């Protein structure tokens, strides 16, 4: 690409002037954006750098569909700058791609800390990203908030100390109790003769948190857990698990695999005659692209929805509602909203609020303290990082939704159970997955 740009400006100056730049590192997309134009005489201390780490490519890329859109939205919302520490500040956002690889997540986080000299790092999605990012931030004293990872997998997976937590790293999402609060009411309502629950849980940080946490809850609730075994991710043959589920006559199914594995499993299950009455899945079927990949087999698969256009939440930056954000994304991209849209947006809301709350936004200890003690009503609802279950963790309460054929897009979500969050309206009846 030529370095020449309009008005005789070089490419870097031009992109900086319009507040949006793009480059490529190691073949992966890297988008850098400046929120607010730097005025004459502005110094580096006036610019607050936020690093953002996510799986933009690879098996988990569905989580990052809305990333560039969100960065542009945040950039526009902060274009006029804001006051923090008694001075006018602007924000620069530097985005890194993990390529869905935990080792890559560690590497790019180190780049943000050592080369880009960021002031704060945010990250999403799944423990494959959140844990290595948070570990590097904790080790280097960098304020950090991440999302879309069960808190147990994030906290215990990083050897967090009960009642103490971490100094620099925080999380907002939910955990096993909230999954139970979301799934169990649907199990009860659907009505089954056999109370066996087939579980497809691989051998990874995410699934092992479900095995250790949700497994006992399932048994305590009066169900019989049928664990298919801790297989390795990337499996291509699920015949042994399917045979085990069929022999138990399980009518309920739950899982926490990576999306490609679930798609393989679900197709094989149908071919081999395993048709549970209700499937309530985690980590998969969160996004429209996954429903499209399964086609008709996606019908009435249920999952947890922590954010949707139906949620009554709004931005703390500009007052935009969840529905407006979803509509803007569709108008801009031609694509359907995804849950990660609201979560990623809130990462930046929280980061900016921490800067504003700190006496000195360049003081990492001060900013980290403001993250750990934050209470904020934002695009992801009411978040309280002081409430626990551990210090520095804010809990969301997901509702149950099912995938059904859409009108504007091939598949859409119908909220069918709001037991865990009555603020979210019901959109339709709970239906059997096997219907």
From TrEMBL:
It comes from the Bacteria. PROSITE patterns: TAT. Keywords: Signal. The keyword Signal applies. The keyword Transferase does not apply. Residues 48-387 form the Leucine-binding protein domain. CDD domains: PBP1_ABC_ligand_binding-like. Belongs to the leucine-binding protein family. Gene3D superfamilies: 3.40.50.2300. It holds the Pfam family Peripla_BP_6. InterPro entries: BCAA_transport (IPR051010), Leu-bd (IPR028081), Peripla_BP_I (IPR028082), TAT_signal (IPR006311). This is ABC transporter substrate-binding protein.
């Amino acid at each position: 690409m030529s370095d020449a740009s309009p008005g005789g400006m070089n490419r870097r100056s031009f992109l900086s002037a319009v507040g949006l730049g793009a480059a490529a590192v190691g073949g992966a997309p890297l988008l850098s954006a400046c929120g607010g134009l730097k005025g004459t005489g502005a110094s580096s201390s006036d610019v607050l750098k936020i690093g953002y780490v996510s799986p933009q490519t690879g098996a988990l890329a569905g989580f990052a569909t809305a990333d560039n859109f969100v960065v542009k939205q945040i950039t526009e919302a902060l274009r006029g700058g804001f006051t923090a520490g008694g001075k006018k500040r602007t924000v620069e956002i530097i985005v890194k791609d993990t390529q869905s690889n935990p080792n890559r997540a560690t590497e790019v986080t180190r780049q943000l800390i050592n080369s880009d000299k960021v002031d704060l790092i945010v990250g999403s999605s799944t423990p494959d990203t959140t844990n290595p990012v948070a570990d590097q931030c904790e080790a280097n004293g960098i304020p950090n908030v991440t999302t879309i990872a069960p808190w147990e997998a994030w906290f215990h997976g990083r050897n967090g100390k009960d009642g103490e937590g971490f100094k620099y790293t925080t999380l907002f999402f939910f955990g096993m109790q909230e999954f139970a609060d979301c799934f169990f009411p649907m199990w009860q309502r659907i009505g089954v003769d056999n109370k066996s629950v087939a579980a497809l849980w691989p051998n990874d940080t995410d699934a092992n948190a479900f095995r250790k946490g949700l497994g006992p809850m399932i048994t305590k609730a009066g169900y019989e857990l049928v664990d298919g075994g801790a297989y390795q991710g990337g499996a291509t043959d699920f015949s042994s698990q399917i045979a085990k589920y069929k022999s138990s006559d399980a009518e309920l199914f739950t899982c926490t695999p990576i999306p490609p594995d679930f798609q393989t499993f679900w197709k094989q299950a149908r071919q081999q005659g395993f048709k549970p009455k209700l499937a309530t899945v985690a980590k998969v079927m969160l996004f429209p692209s996954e429903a499209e990949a399964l086609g008709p087999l996606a019908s009435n698969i249920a999952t947890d929805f922590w954010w949707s256009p139906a949620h009554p939440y709004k931005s703390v930056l500009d007052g935009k509602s969840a529905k407006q954000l979803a509509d803007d994304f569709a108008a801009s991209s031609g694509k359907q909203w995804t849950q990660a849209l609201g979560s990623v947006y809130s990462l930046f809301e929280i980061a900016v609020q921490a800067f504003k709350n700190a006496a000195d936004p360049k003081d990492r200890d001060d900013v980290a303290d403001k993250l750990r003690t934050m209470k904020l009503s934002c695009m992801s609802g009411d978040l309280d990082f002081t409430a626990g279950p551990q210090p520095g963790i804010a809990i969301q309460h997901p509702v149950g939704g099912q995938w059904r054929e859409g009108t504007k897009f091939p598949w859409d979500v119908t909220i069918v159970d709001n037991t865990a969050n009555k603020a979210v309206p019901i959109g339709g009846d709970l239906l059997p997955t096997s219907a």
